[in-house]
Design goal:
alpha+beta; six-stranded mixed β-sheet; about 30% strand; 9 helices
Amino acid sequence: MSDEHIFPEKLGGRRVLKNKVCRECNNGVLSGLDTQLITHSPLSIIAFRELKTGLPDTWEINEHDGKTLISAQPVINESGFEAMRVWPQIMLENGKLSIYGTEREMREYGAQEFNRKVVEHTKRVLKHRACGAISIIDEQHSQYDFHESCEYPPRLYLPCILRELKRSSKMILSYVSEEDKFRLLYALEKMPSDHTFNTSVTIPGSKSPLIVRSWYPDILVRALGKIGFNLLSHLCTKTLINRFTYPAIDYITGVRRRKYPVVPPFGFVPPHFAEEIKHPNKGHAARVVYSDKSWTILFSFFGNALAAIIQIPGHSSEEWYSADVSMDLNRKRSWTESKTKLLLQARGIVEWEDVNRICPSLKIIGSTRKTSIEAVRIVPKGSRKKV
């Protein structure tokens, strides 16, 4: 058995359940659910803003043609999103190799030195890969249904600035189709060490990044259910919480693909439903209520920047009916909890499509109305620029 964080460690959680979870499950499927929650859900954007975590699947748009997506990472400061940082990268566009980088780095190193460093490292990682050694190239097969006005050429990019470049630094091979992948690899293999690019593009970095988030309700319901069961295991002292007393555990771990609806009351809700349990210092909070032979768990993440709700059917032997817990992300010993025999309010109207309702604090515009994919621009306060 192994320890398990009640709120995922990737979300800043510190409180743990001691020897409560199967080690294989904890390091396998449950870890995968945490990863999905932090990378492919509305929570990923909030966590990036609050915890300064990485944010995959973000791009700058080439201002020269207005449609080429360039791999980049938002830069944030205390007031929020500042600009985009374009990663050094080589693309295959119309059969020719192009190199992209930030205007700042191009000025700092000079275009010729910038190109030399990127090509040198590219050759190094390709040689390493060809030798059959442990790969220092990660593949990123993009499966997003990009808008017809956007283009996504295959690229090999370095997810760091040149100043942080090391011999062991990984590069990421990103492509849409297998054909794109092999065409790019072939062109890079043929590229001479002193290659001169016909196209060398410097990007100053805009203040309205293109951020794409795709999520699958079934996976996110399981990820939220995992946190819910962690809370029940911690709070319940007289109720046995295991897969035999709570069959929903098999659904969460994937052992039994039991069909739980991904409609109310399972999923993300507008934050005003969790305003009563909001943490005053951008921490996490939850309300656990037992009624009608099931537990309702209302979550408030990052000071109620995002809220969610789930229901877990099952028996309770507890003497209490409601419990509130909260955790400050900025202090190690900040876990508080209270239990009562009163039935406190825990409700919400689930929303899967409208990101503006789920995350009103992000000032999102131009979001697509699809459950499987969300493509949005984050725009600074006061700007009304449309996508």
